[in-house]
Each structure stands twice: as structure tokens, then as C-alpha cells.
Amino acid sequence: MDTSAHRLNANLARAQPSATYRMMDRVAARRSSGASVFSLSAGEPDFDTPEHIREAAIEAIRAGHTRYTQVAGMRSLREAVAEKFQRENGLDVGWQDTIVCSGGKQVIYNALAATLDEGDEVIVPAPYWVSYPEMVALCGARAVVVPCGIEGRFKLTPQALCKAIGPRTRWLILNSPSNPSGAVYTRDELAALADVLLAHPHVLVLSDDIYEHLIFDGAAFFTIAQVEPRLACRTLTMNGVSKAYAMTGWRIGYGTGPRWLLDAMEKLQGQQTSGASSISQHAALAALSGPQDFIGKTREVFEHRRSLVVDALNAAPGLQCEIPGGAFYAFASCMGLIGKITAAGTVLKTDEDVARALLDEASVAVVQGSAFGLAPYIRIAYALDDDTLVEACHAIQGFCRSLSDPNNVDA
Ligand code: GLU
């Protein structure tokens, strides 16, 4: 068929596909052809959704809760969301100040699409989750990427924020604990960023708190609208059940923010996907209003895995990994591998080469740091059981040891 008469939307054509999903697809393709792969690429808990949540969904089906819900979510779920924001984050929120969407991604995309015009700017500290800049591009706006390297523990400083703000800035995106670095902002660090934002009333703040409960070393979680209540009127605080309750496939995200913004997001969603799945909303209601012990247990498991993985990565020649404060990712510098040659003869010029060779030659799937805006790094998701993680780390170590150095002729 001649497709020359057709073209894609220009914003879509400019945006990149999701690098995390790309790697997950590669893993699935290999597995379906019979190969075994250690998948350290997907950012999703490996636990089953707790039993009482699954039962609530089954009960919802039996009870016939199988029809459309309100676009912004069932009233009972929105009340539970408001209660969660009050209980855990100290936010002064009523149910009308909330919205429920089909996954955290839709909360973020709705907010950006509802507000951005051509030429607007969004400040995205790097390393960032792969989808932020692409969503901004889809909306025809420009991501202003602010590099936040290891020297500042991957965190945005007030000085860098101040420099990045311009007349076209519409949003700052914050994500703590961070995907991919695991960096966690303290109360004081958020307060210092808030001070800068108070001087720039035209900037909205999107706080992606999806890893809220995966925070280690006894540290406390803070979100910016809680630290600086004067910012609440221009902050979208978003979260979801995916990571906290091992519910990635149920697709429920939620948020709270100023009513004008929530109304615009609801209008957009009402013309797009309508309300989220009624069954999933009932499951999310059980998650938010039922027993919360699952959260503490999984945090302990991830904290244990973090040490296991970080120690193993630091024992691999050429890799260097700081101890992340939260989430379930290790973000390791692979600078020491760049320029080396693999057993199959590939020269590792970039972190993308490293990720590809790890998959091809060691059957380990990771995601390259460049997809997160900081190179040369690799992101390792440690959402696997201990035995598999140990095996996968051995495979990474073996790969690193097998590399030859073209500058060292004796090697
Ligand atoms: N957020 C997870 C990750 O970074 C899931 C995949 C995605 O949506 O990017 O791996």
C-alpha cells in the first residue's frame, strides 16, 4: 500500500517510544523463542497483589459493579484517596479535590495535555523517568532538562532550578524517591526548592510520589505541597496503587491539585478513556482503605535486596553504584566499561551498547542510563527474588570480567 499520502502527528513523530517498554518487549520476545533471560528491566514489584485486594475485585464483579463510573472516579474511591492524602501526607484534601485515572501515567499526561501549548517549557531534572520528556514532547512543549549528576546525589539544587526557570516555564516535575536513581529529597531540600518556586508564581509543580512507600534506612517521606502549603494551590500531587500494593496491571493512578486543573483533566479524560476500570477501582478502594501491613513487609524485602545488588554491582569491574535511598532501582555508572571489547567482539562505545551486549552475551536485561537522560549508566530493577538476583548479578560480574581492554595489549 502506498502510505506517502499519510503522515503522523508531528509531536508524536518527534517523541521516542518508551525505553522501558522497549526492553520489556525484547525480553518477552527472547523468552517466547525459548531463551532464558534475567529481567532487571521492568520497574514492577514481583509480588502478587494481596489477597484481600484480589477478593474485593472478584466481589465487585459478582456484585455487578461492571458499568461506567464517574469520569473522575467512584465517589467512594475518591473519598479513600482524599483520606490517604490527609493521613499519610498531611494534605488538606476533600474528595472533590481528587481524580482517579487509568494508571499514574494518565494522571501525568492529563495534567500536561490540559495545560501545555506549543513553545511552553517543562523543567525535568535528569536522571528522569523515561516518559516525562516524551509526554512533554507529545504535548508540543519543550522539556528543559537539568542535569543532576552523582556529585549532587542526583538531586536538583535551588540554584539549578532558579537558572532553569524562564518566562515560558509552566511546570517543574519532581520525583522522590526517584526512578531511576533512587534519590530521596529531604524535607529541607524540598523547602529550599519551594523557596525558589514561591518567587515564581507562574510555575506549576508536578510531584510524582509513586515510590512514596519504598524508602529505606528509616528515612521519612515528604512531598512538596506538605512541606510548603503555599504551593498546594499550584501543585499536582500524584500517586497510584501500582508500586505500593503490587498492582501494576490494574492501572489505577490518582492525584490531588487545584480544582481548575482537576476539572480540565476530567474534561480531557471524559473525551478520551472515561473513568478507569470499575473492577480496578474497587480493588484500589480495598487497597487504600484495608490493612496496610503489605507496604512495610515489601519495603523490608526491597531494602534487603538493595544491599545485595549494590554490593554485587560494586564488585563488578567497571561498574560503580551509590546506595540508593528508595524505589527499587540501582543506577550504576558503567564509565569503566566504555571503550572495552566484549567476548563477541563488540566495542562498547555507549551505555546503550553495554545494555545491548549484556542482553546478547549475558542474558541480562537492564535499561541504559541515556534513556533516563544521564550517561553512561545502567538501571537495574531489583524486583526479583534473592536467588535470581544473585544469579543475575553473577552474570553481570562475569560479563564485566570477560571484557578486554584495547589499550592494554597484554590483556
Ligand atoms: N515505571 C516503570 C519503569 O520505569 C514501568 C514501565 C514504565 O511505565 O516506564 O520501568
UniProtKB/TrEMBL annotation:
Enzyme Commission number, as recorded: 2.6.1.-
Domain Aminotransferase class I/classII large: 37-396
Keyword Magnesium: no
PROSITE patterns linked: AA_TRANSFER_CLASS_1
Broadest EC class assigned to this enzyme: transferase
Keyword Ribosomal protein appears in the UniProt entry: no
GO BP annotations, alphabetical order: amino acid metabolic process
GO MF terms, alphabetically ordered: pyridoxal phosphate binding; transaminase activity
CDD domains: AAT_like
Entry keyword set: Aminotransferase, Pyridoxal phosphate, Transferase
Cofactor needs: pyridoxal 5'-phosphate
Family, per entry: Belongs to the class-I pyridoxal-phosphate-dependent aminotransferase family.
PANTHER family to which the protein is assigned, alphabetical: ASPARTATE AMINOTRANSFERASE
Protein name: Aminotransferase
Source organism (scientific name): Caballeronia arationis
Lineage: Bacteria, Pseudomonadati, Pseudomonadota, Betaproteobacteria, Burkholderiales
